[in-house]
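re: that chain from earlier
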Amino acid sequence: MRSGIVGVDVDKALDHPSEIFTSPEEVLECTEISADNKAAILSRWAYDVREVAVAEEEGMPGPDTALMRRINLALDQLPKPGANNGGTPGKQGNI
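^ sequence. v structure.
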């Protein structure tokens, strides 16, 4: 894990978390981004992992379940936002 990430491109992190962070834990440790942005980044990362799971159902390589577990554990450590924005989450969750 890299220590002390400086100058985080939040927009890029929101679109491609694994290109900015080496682990979900690193997202949590980053002091330059808010808890809301951390949750959004981790949720996007989880979405990306679930996309791989959907691809596996279609005969493509499978997801990294250990990574998904780490993302969920990291999300559990963040403050919970207000109620879900409605709707039932699909296979990729509810972003």
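Residues 39 and 80 are 9 Å apart (CA to CA).
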